[in-house]
Amino acid sequence: MAFALPLVLGFFTSTFGIIPPGLINMTAAKVSLKEGRTRALVFASGASIVVLFQTLIAVVFAHYIDDNPQIVIMLREIGLAVFTALTIYFFLAAKKVKPKKKQVKMHSKRSRFFMGMLLSALNFFPIPFYVFVSITLASYNYFIFEKSFIYTFVLGSGIGSFFAFYCYIAFFKKMEEQTTFILKNMNYIIGSVTGLVSVLTAINIIQFYWK
To answer: How many domains does the chain have?
Structure first.
């Protein structure tokens, strides 16, 4: 159980963070369609390795933040304001913006492994994402800042990332209609998620001050 919990948490949080259509997973899908599944999997491996390091950096940083409850609650209050603003923005944007199908241009013929690492390294979203996730999970006693727990969580995040990329590589043609639906409704989906996070964060802040 001590091994399974952080592995499962890392797997599902990483999968959730990567599964929405984006540059890296759509690039992985295009590599698969144009150059074959093997090269696409090599690309996904490079991208997943970078996610491992990004997760480790984020969790270590979150550990120092978590040692100071005042910083944690301040970040939650800032997060509440940010996520509330994002919720309003995405629901308003969903009514105005007509989504266009995202095209990924690829010209490089270099190693897909290093290309995956490069694209993943240029994506800084995982670091604040995992800082927020680890602190939030820790506040509900689902995350422990111990070496074994952290390393297992990081491993789970790498596996979850690769799984998300693999889904795009293996099932992109079958998922194309669903992907189009997601792209058309992405603002509503993100707005709903940020809205839910805002509610949970607000409840957590109220509980902190209620003590």
So the answer is: 1
Q: Which domain holds residue 84?
A: 4-210
Distance CA 27, CA 41 (A): 11
SS (H, E, C) the chain: CCCHHHHHHHHHHHHHHHCCCCHHHHHHHHHHHHHCHHHHHHHHHHHHHHHHHHHHHHHHHHHHHHCCHHHHHHHHHHHHHHHHHHHHHHHHHHHHCCCCCCCCCCCCCCCHHHHHHHHHHHCCCHHHHHHHHHHHHHHCCCCCCCHHHHHHHHHHHHHHHHHHHHHHHHHHHHHHHHHHHHHHCHHHHHHHHHHHHHHHHHHHHHHHHHC
pLDDT digit string (tens) for 166-200? 988 888 766 555 556 655 665 676 677 667 767 87
Contact 183, 99 (CB under 8 A): yes
Q: Which amino acid is at 198?
A: S
| pTM greater than 0.90 (yes/no) | no
